[in-house]
Design a protein that fits this description.
- The complex is a heterodimer of chains A (514) and B (280).
- With 514 residues, chain A is of the alpha/beta class.
- Chain A has two domains: 97 residues, 2-Layer Sandwich (Alpha-Beta Plaits); 263 residues, TIM Barrel (Alpha-Beta Barrel).
- Helices cover 29% and strands 17% of the residues of chain A.
- Chain A contains 16 helices and 23 strands.
- In chain A, 52% of the residues are buried.
- Chain B is an alpha/beta fold.
- The termini of chain B are far apart.
- The chains are: A alpha/beta (514), B alpha/beta (280).
- At the A-B interface, helix 3, strand 5, helix 5, helix 6 and helix 7 of A face helix 2 and strand 13 of B.
- Strand 5 of chain A pairs parallel with strand 13 of chain B.
Chain lengths: 514, 280
């Protein structure tokens, strides 16, 4: 059936934003016009005026920030439907959009619905009287983290009787050292611009942590950043060749993503430009379709097969990570993953970001990362296999306190995606899927992506990591802990506020005051 | 290294021996090595093959292979890049030649699931049949299978620029043949069918790149809705003459008889099968 598309109808949609131009300040420099890929602003030569088509505005604030005279204010459109707790403005707008297009509504970035954010109901401990706190500015404070499988026991060999010449007799599994318990989340070249991708690689390399290639491959000239890269092997197997696997610090099998558990990804053909086509190894202009499942993985046994295929392909020198979305039986699945041979398990929660996902999936599928993490950590401990993997968690980490709380709930390290994007310029307008990102991050348009200078953007990212790391040290010191290792799974340092009994039970923490 | 985890057989890595303890299984003379694989697990075989390659061996003969996985996967040598010839006698296990980096594998026996999984280049010949997901995400090189293949063959095969993988299957295939195919050339000959039709359903469902050639009877309902039947062109016959010609020579079929059959050429109707699903 041929659909009648929106272009042929009069649109019933209300504008999302209002553009207020203070005429006394506007100098007709036309910066706003040039900066907006959504073509909101238009200069009329005859009238010497700049007009704004508010229906096109996505509220990314690019024009407001760059306006040299601060003449622009962009804010949510005050026009409202009749107030209705059930039929909110968003619901009505979505209905109208679907009536006009007949399609699946797309969105970008993470779930924006008011699900309970458990981090905001968990408070941290500090030392008072009975044990001393530590001042991280004066005393050594260890944030260094090792990702990978740890042995069940460590056997030491003493050479000679003086206890000075000691060596580790146990053969160790491959581990990757990171200087701070934060790594950049998977964002593919294709989803984000070359400049943004390179900025992440440069920042990870400078700070001594990792970035994640996502499943779009790693351009040849960036393979020098391989030792700071987690490379993904996902259902589309884009850009996977033996060199790609062997240049990396970690190989990650992507099963799912927090923003869209259970579904695949479609990078639309118009975004598959020549450089993207070479990196992904597909013809130019073709949709890059990532199937929903990996078609060689229908069971834990099959997962094990791919894990060991990757270990074989990388000479057993690289830890293999398996990334899943946090879903209902996440603890049992995680146990299976560890038994299948995963050295790192990565779990992406309900609020995880995306470059493009059906809104209905993003907003309704999956479980919060806090509960998933606590359940997985507890299950692996109960089964005596927690040491066999590192746990990486992702999905909505907003500040260093979230990171500290996650580590106390059992995480080894945290994936940060949205904070990194915001550090580079993102304002969470959620229009990543349009490919028109005015900040040059989520676009393949060279006119837009040129706006992001990797030298400067990587500096912003390094600053972010540095700031958060300093804060983490302060929080650790306050608790009287001098190594992040001592906080790992240390739930005694957490208390719940305003949580139900079942929530405290799943999180494995006491209520405040207990 | 202790590989066992309570409750899982852990990919047969329970009692892997060190390389020095298994060297006697390899018999190296000049640049040829013969390995008795009958008492080795997959990691031991690949350890030995890697060792042999680094010793300058260019041809490896594996005897008594029975179900060992990932044969040929650990032969990535960045510089220089030797090209090995691996002859396998017996029945290799799953993921034969996964991520294969340009080597040539000849199997005298049947292969299992995942032959040439995400293979990058080289060649795999199977004098027998193969299981499911043959040539999954294959991006370069050539696979020739004499007899039948299982489900989901050539799923998500790819190509770019001059890197175009080729798969020729002598027998028939099961459902989802060429599903999600994004590139490459796949030929299904149906040589063992006689006058019977192919049985596969959902052929080329989700296909958005590459070309499939099917010899023998296929009804329209067996095809996925994303593929269309198009006319054969001169280049197509040239391609078939080369690869089917080689196939016939290697496996002993009559070239003219095989190429004289009716070929159906299938191509995706669009490079963007799901472009209209979304509301922007």
């Amino acid at each position: 059936m041929e659909l009648v598309r929106g272009e042929e109808m009069f649109s019933h949609m209300l504008p999302e934003f209002i553009v207020e131009r203070r005429e006394d300040r506007c100098i007709r420099c036309r910066v706003c016009e040039r900066q907006c890929a959504f073509e909101v602003h238009k200069y009329d030569k005859e009238l010497d005026m700049v007009f704004s088509d508010e229906k096109k505005c996505v509220g990314c604030q690019r024009c407001a920030v760059l306006c040299p005279t601060d003449a622009l204010v962009i804010r949510p459109h005050p026009g409202e439907y009749r107030r209705n707790a059930n039929w909110t403005r968003e619901r009505i707008q979505d209905l109208k959009k679907q009536a006009e297009t007949g399609g699946v509504i797309l969105t970008g970035s993470g779930n924006d619905k008011p699900y309970r954010i458990y981090w905001d109901h968990i408070v941290l401990n500090a030392s008072q009287v009975t044990n001393p706190s530590i001042d991280p500015l004066r005393e050594p404070m260890e944030l260094r983290t090792f990702l990978g499988r740890k042995p069940d026991a460590l056997e030491l060999r003493f050479n000679g009787g003086d206890y000075e010449d000691v060596e580790v007799a146990t053969e160790l599994y491959p581990n990757v050292m990171i200087e701070t318990p934060m790594v950049f989340s998977a964002m593919s070249y294709g989803a984000i611009s070359y400049q943004a991708f390179k900025s992440l690689a440069m920042a990870a390399s400078e700070y001594g942590t990792l970035f994640n290639t996502g499943e779009g491959g790693l351009p040849k000239e960036l393979r020098k950043y391989g030792k700071n890269a987690i490379v993904q092997c996902a259902s589309g197997r884009f850009g996977v060749d033996p060199e790609y696997l062997n240049c990396a610090a970690v190989v990650e099998i992507k099963i799912g993503q927090g923003a869209k558990p259970g579904i695949g990804g479609h990078l639309p053909g118009e975004k598959v430009t020549l450089p993207i086509s070479v990196t992904r190894m597909i013809p130019e202009g073709t949709d890059a379709l990532s199937p929903a499942p990996q078609h060689d993985i229908y069971s834990i046994e099959d997962l094990s097969m791919l894990i060991y295929a990757l270990k074989e392909a990388t000479n057993y020198e690289t830890p293999v990570s398996v990334k899943i979305a946090a879903v209902h039986n996440v603890a049992a699945i995680a146990s299976g993953m560890v038994r299948a041979g995963a050295d790192i398990i990565a779990i992406d929660g309900l609020r995880g970001g995306t470059g493009a996902a059906p809104k209905i999936i993003r907003d309704n599928v999956g479980i919060p990362i806090e509960l998933a993490l606590a359940a997985v950590d507890r299950r692996l401990r109960e089964e005596g296999i927690r040491n066999k993997c590192s746990i990486l968690v992702a999905g909505g980490f907003r500040c260093s306190a979230d990171v500290v709380k996650a580590i106390a709930l059992g995480a080894d390290a945290v994936y940060i995606g949205t904070p990194a994007l915001v550090a580079m310029g993102c304002t969470l307008c959620q229009k990543c899927y349009t490919g028109k990102c005015n900040w040059g991050i989520c676009t393949q348009d060279p006119y837009l992506s040129r706006r992001l200078n990797p030298e400067i953007a990587s500096k912003r990212l390094v600053n972010l990591l540095r700031g958060w790391s300093l804060e983490i040290k302060e929080m650790l010191g306050g608790m009287g802990i001098n190594a992040v290792e001592s906080l790992r799974g240390n739930r005694e340092h957490l208390r719940g506020v305003g949580l139900e009994d079942w929530e405290l039970e799943v999180l494995g923490i006491k209520g405040a005051g207990e | 290294m202790e590989y066992s985890i309570g409750g899982l057989r852990d990919m047969f890595l329970g009692n892997v021996r060190r390389l020095e303890d298994i060297l006697s299984y390899a018999n190296i003379s000049d640049d040829i090595a013969e390995i008795d694989a009958s008492r080795l697990v997959h990691k031991e075989i690949n350890d030995l093959m890697q060792y042999c390659a680094l010793q300058g061996v260019r041809k490896i003969v594996l005897r008594g292979v029975c179900g060992q996985r990932y044969l040929g996967t650990r032969l990535y040598f960045p510089n220089p890049r030797p090209r090995l010839e691996i002859e396998i006698h017996g029945h290799p296990g799953n993921d034969l030649g996964a991520f294969l980096d340009g080597h040539r594998i000849v199997v005298h026996g049947n292969a299992q699931d995942g032959v040439g999984n995400t293979m990058d280049g080289g060649e795999i010949l199977v004098h027998g049949r193969a299981g499911d997901v043959v040539a999954m995400s294959m991006r370069g090189g050539r696979i020739l299978i004499r007899d039948d293949v299982g489900y989901r063959t050539a799923i998500h095969m790819k190509e770019y620029k001059d890197k175009v993988p080729v798969l020729v299957v002598g027998g028939t295939a099961q459902d989802f043949f060429g599903e999600y195919m994004a590139g490459g050339r796949v030929v299904l000959l149906g040589l063992n069918l006689g006058n019977k039709p192919h049985r596969a359903r959902y052929i080329g469902t989700g296909m958005h790149g590459g070309i499939m050639f099917i010899r023998g009877k296929v009804e329209k309902w067996q095809l996925g809705k994303e593929v269309g039947i198009v006319d054969m062109e001169r280049e197509d016959w040239k391609l078939l003459e080369k690869h089917v010609g080689d196939f016939c020579e290697i496996f002993g079929f009559k070239r003219d008889e095989v190429l004289g059959g009716d070929f159906l050429k299938l191509k995706p109707m669009t490079k963007r099968p799901y472009g209209k699903v979304y509301a922007y």
